[in-house]
Amino acid sequence: PQHVVLYPLVSKSLRNIAAGKDPLEGQRHCCSIAQMHDHYSLGYPDLDELQKNPQPLIFDIEVLKVEPPGSYQQDPWAMTDEEKLQAVPQIHKEGNELYRQGKVPEAAAKYYDAIACLKNLQMKEQPGSPDWIELDQKITPLLLNYCQCKLQCEEYYEVLDHCSSILNKYEDNVKAYFKRGKAHAAVWNVAEAQADFAKVLALDPSLRAVVSKELRSLEARLREKDAEDKIRFKGIFSQ
């Protein structure tokens, strides 16, 4: 038996991890003892009781599975800065493979993890500094891949937000204009979609056939919508 005074906070962090949350959620920068006094409730009655009345604990550890060397991949929050930087190319590659297999949500999750690694590193750099810019240029293609997944998952407003953030920094990014144009078209922002597709053509005239196809698709959807609206509202003003 071991008397473990700080176990309630450790257990809360482990439960956050299991739920996919930040393990330090709700904590502030101070020592562990101060953390315990700062939290009148940890959100779990059993941990609150243990915090009020510490007692010897016995831990039973069950082995769930054994993974061969090199097969285990840490979550981004658990990695050192160097491990994050080294992990990104492999996570990117795994995302690409999942996307090729048609596993789009799973690919998006991989891209998200790679972006999270780089964003964490970027937060430690001065915005606009050479190191910050280098990390941002690594983030951008991953973010565009993530947006492609979100387009296919029909999460268009997320695509609009991310592509706009890219274009605020890189005004000549053709892929960001194209993906944002598709997202605008999907949510009936016709003028905005047309403007983005026009920008694509201005930056890369070789994409005329692809852009023309998107514009024809948008026009066809507009005609269908117009016809549906006429049927839906037929006679409404003659009553």
TrEMBL record:
- Start and end residues of the TPR repeats are 174-207
Q: GO cellular component annotations, sorted alphabetically?
A: cytoplasm
- Xref: PROSITE patterns: TPR
Molecular-function annotations in GO:
peptidyl-prolyl cis-trans isomerase activity
Please state every residue range assigned to the domain named AIP/AIPL N-terminal FKBP-type PPIase: 1-63
Coiled coil, from the record:
none
**Keyword terms, alphabetized:** Cytoplasm, Phosphoprotein, Repeat, TPR repeat
| Location of the protein in the cell | Cytoplasm
Q: Name one Pfam family in it.
A: PPIase_AIP
Please give the function described in this protein's UniProt entry. Answer: May play a positive role in AHR-mediated (aromatic hydrocarbon receptor) signaling, possibly by influencing its receptivity for ligand and/or its nuclear targeting.
Q: How is the quaternary structure described? A: Interacts with RET in the pituitary gland; this interaction prevents the formation of the AIP-survivin complex.
Output this protein's name: AH receptor-interacting protein
What organism is the protein native to? Answer: Sitta europaea (Eurasian nuthatch)
